[in-house]
Amino acid sequence: MAEIQLSPARAEAAASRLPPLIVQAERIAATVMQGVHGRRRSGHGDAFWQFRAYSPGDSASSVDWRQSAKADRLFVRETEWEAAQTVLLWRDPSPSMRWRSSPELEEKSQRADLLLLALASLLLRGGERVRLVPGDIRAFMGRAALPALAAALMRPVPEGSPTLDPSMPRHARIVMFGDFLQPVPEIQAILSDFAARPLRGQMLQILDPAEESLPYSGRIRFDGLEGEAPLLVPRVETIRALYTERLAAHRDAISTMARAAGWGFSTHRTDQPPHLALLALWQALAPA
Amino acid sequence: MITFAAPWLLLALPALPLLWWILRVTPPQPRRMDFPAAMLLRDLPIAEETPARTPWWVLLMRVLAAALLILGLARPVAGPGGAASGAGTLLLVLDDGWASGPDWPLRVAIAQAELDRAGREGRPAALLTTTPGEGGAPPRVIGPMPAEDLAPRLAALRPRSWPPDRAAALAALDSWGRTERFSTLYLSDALAHQDGDAAQAFMARLAAGGPLTLARAEERPVRLLSPPRIEGDRLMLTLRQSPVSTPGEAQVIARSQDGRALARASFTLGAGATEAEAVLELPTEIRNRVYRLDLAEETGPGAVVLLDERFRRRPVGLLPGAEEAAADAPLIGDLFYLERALAPFTELRRGEVERLLARPLSVLILADRPVPQGPELTALNRFVEQGGTLIRFAGARLAEHPDSLLPVQLRAERQLGGSLSWEQPQHLAPFAEGSPFAGLAVPAEISVERQVLAEPSPRLAERVWARLADGTPLVTAETRGAGRIVLFHVTATAEWSDLPLSGLFVQMLRRLVSLSAGVSGQEGEGTLAPLEALDGFGRLVPPPHGAQPLPPTGAATPSARTPPGWYGVAGGEGYRRALNLGDSLPAPTLHAQPPIGTAFRGIAGIPPERDLGPWLMAAALLILALDLLASLRLRGLLTLARTAGIVLILSAGPALAQQNDGLQALVTRLGYVSTGDSATDETTRQGLAGLSDFVNRRTAAALGDPVGVTPGRDDLSLFPLLYFTVRPDAPALDPAAISALNGFMRNGGIILFDTRDEGSGEGFAPGARAALRRVTQGLAIPPLMPVPEEHVLRRAFYLLAELPGRFAGGTVWVSREQDRANDSVSPVVIGGHDWAGAWATDARGQNIHAAVPGGARQRILAYRFGANLVMYALTGNYKGDQVHVPAILERLGN
């Protein structure tokens, strides 16, 4: 297991990446915002929702006098209901995420960070509380919390399963970003642990295009990124179809598990635009 | 034939098949790839079809590289010298006299090859040079010692500029005292020199010691240039050489003190000829500047003749009749006409009699100056007795006080054509056959109005050199001692006759001066110290240690103690005497045949042996580098693009740098058309660099480094001005270049064509004008005219009356101002002043090429023309419009 060193130089390098990352995340979030709006229910909140006729029992202070002056009836101003919910966000910190097949592409971990921040931006705008797991107990609220969230995201997190965090609230939602290339039983264990809390959530599998298509040929020694033993394949082209099948089976297994637990599972490739994945996530998170 | 210096290493060659087998069973390294989804790849059913094998061509490359390495380490040697075979000590004998200079490097190379061979065979070697060392140190055998230790001694040898002494060499051989046999390689100059039979005795002694190989240049004659004889205006040159079977020719170049070629003459030598003559005809003023004669394409002191004052200087002293100040009065001064007639071809001296005679003088001219009894008369008498020429002109004062320094007794003065005379002014009679003036044309318009008459005497007739039409003597002469007195019976002014006004006067004086004895050996005490000596390659160097002074008179023979070169009194004006090999050495003749049993080899055309080892190693390394690239490629670490990049960088690095148009476009710079001759291109580049520097310092223009371009291949649109040096051998342009240059001119570019042979440089590049015609065949050259006085080119930055470069005086052509398309800016400037040569500076900013005729002013004007040209190219006729500024201002004011 590769150590992630906490060093000043590394923190600085990460911090210098922060503003562009936030800007990018905000931009992606804005494109998604255009098509999606709030909770569409009247409730406590800042945003105007609707006017409705005064009915006995409404307090006088809730009457919108300006609107009432335009007509014969009294109107009450209702604001949109904003039920703050805690959304837990997790992204896979393992070394296998820090990989890309060609220099033109982003690393998987970069894409995961971007999507996480963009989703967080959307959630914070919607008034939700956002928490990073594992590690940080603090929940972020309000749109201004995004840079702090990003800074917290850049801090190295302890390796390991997200289930180890005992401070996770119940009935919260969780969104997991990762490549989910572990053996299925490991994923099963995590999922069932979460489901027992109970937590519901979304899994987004982020893969590099090369991991889907295996575009190599010839005699190649494959080295895993997480300390797996190297594997010598004499002619890669002969096993490409087998590999694709196996990847599909792996995905199916995870998907089936997720559905059974009432979770959502979707996939994303780093050569696709991030908006699509974000929109799908956002809609999946929205209450019915 | 190839031999190996370390043959035991070849034993490694049979191991190559083993290497092949090992390489074959070792599969190549697989490509390595990080892959996160390696887990999914695990346990896939992998069908191993064929075991991975190194491709056969990679195997072949590696085995080949190994073979080349083994061969290279075994140090193969191609063409080893097999001449002085034999065992025992190798004795190298070199004739390092003056005749060995021309092919000295070959001689040393052959000796070195032999030495290398002896070194490989582990034989000791010894060295004997037959020529006495500096200061006359006798020859001595060096060694025997290991061949490697002798090599630096051999490399340090230089040919001497005096003859070898084989008798002394024989003595050195005897004192060496070897009893066991040795083998000898004798690099002989094949000449007998003055030592008679010594060469034969020497070779016999060598042959007695062991096998003897004689190396000599058989087809190359040894040439000896003799000092010229002066016959009137001509220098008669004699070349002597050792006989060869093929006819040949030689060229002799007359050079001035600063090394410029003034003239050349050709010798033609038939087969077997040993002597040839050539004539060098030069105007006297040029001949006086000849400093040395060189055989072209021949080095060595035998090919050089230094010309001292005997060949050059005819100093002429002038003494006026009255006081010095009045003598120069225009048109009436005593010396006015004389000075103008003599100055172009002689060295004139003025001053008092004592001062004039204190230095050697060939001619002394007294203009209407009687010489009274006294020390002056004594001094002049001595001057004439010792060989001086005294020329006197008559006049009123001389007619009044005749003295003894006259060829004839003077009788009276007569006036012709005056108001009290019946007689008409007399014309000159044609010169008689025996007169020194014979052959000079007599113009009819010369008339003599007054003259002094000679007392008739029996010897008068033979003393007369020129007469008037009525037979009275005009010029008389008498020989006294070694010298001569010449009297003109008229004045040196136009007072008595028209003679000083005519061209005949100049010609007569010139004849008289060339008749006079040159300034030869300084009389009197003191010896002549060596000033400069010719070395074995015919170069002037500081005299060697041990060089002795020459006696002031008498013949001297070039030897180790008195090497050829300059002798004299140190200091600028001091007297110098040249000692040449050709003065006293006999004609080169071949020495006697060597003893029976001698092996021969030539000196020319023998390929020296070459060590092939380094080349084989280099080839092996190259193959290994290719192998590295190939295996990187096989392992996927090298993409095709990277390979192509590396190959491009390796193969076409310099060419790529030239193609970098992006950088060139950032700075304005001058361009020149590459001629294909690197020396010419380098001069042009230096010239444009010097001009760019000048323009950057003096004007607001900022020019970058100049760039050479090839029209049709490079983009010309980046250059405001192209410098086109037209070499005599320039080929016609190809269609692509023609269309590129036409487009360049059409779009406002200016091309400066330079033939480098106009004006004072005429003849420096014969054929360049024909080449210009050839080069401009397809170009759209507009109708031309000489640059007019008011042309913008003369006013763009500096006001210029002339447009000189390294040469001056030629015509510079521009287009007629009729093409309105480019605002009448001429697209071409055509001339032959070698401007780039004038502008060229070296790295320290010094000008490289001398200007002709020379002077700082010409250099400055050349740079100014360059600045004007750049301004013209950059601003067009903008500066021409400035002349309208007053009119425009006036109109604005109204």
Describe the largest sheet of chain A: 6 strands, mixed
Through-space gap between termini of chain A: 41 Å
Task: Give the averaged pLDDT of chain A, no decimals.
Answer: 79
Low-confidence stretches of chain A: 1-8
Decide which structural class fits the backbone of chain A.
alpha/beta
The arrangement of helices and strands of chain A along the chain is HEHEEHEEHEHEHEEHEH
SS strand fraction of chain A: 15-25%
Count of helical segments of chain B? Answer: 26
And the CATH topology of the largest domain in chain A? Rossmann fold
Question: What's the CATH topology name of the largest domain in chain B?
Answer: Rossmann fold
Q: How many separate domains of chain B?
A: 6
**Tally of extended strands of chain A?**
10
Fraction in beta strands of chain B: 15-25%
Q: Radius of gyration of chain B in whole Å, from Cα?
A: 39 Å
**Assembly annotation:** heterodimer
CATH C-level class of the largest domain in chain B is: Alpha Beta
Task: Give an account of the 3D structure.
The complex is a heterodimer of chains A (288) and B (894). By secondary structure, chain A is an alpha/beta fold. Chain A folds into two domains: 233 residues, Rossmann fold (3-Layer(aba) Sandwich), CATH 3.40.50; 32 residues, no CATH class. Chain A has eight helices and ten strands. In chain A, helix 5 links the parallel strand 6 and strand 7. In chain A, helix 1 packs across helix 8, helix 3 runs antiparallel to helix 4 and helix 5 runs parallel beside helix 7. Chain A is elongated and about 85 Å long. Chain B is an alpha/beta fold and 894 residues long. In chain B, strand 9 and strand 10 form a beta hairpin. The radius of gyration of chain B is 39 Å and the shape is flat. About 2% of the residues of chain B have low confidence. Chains A and B meet through strand 8, strand 9 and helix 7 of A and strand 2 and helix 2 of B. Strand 8 of chain A pairs parallel with strand 2 of chain B, so a sheet runs across the interface.
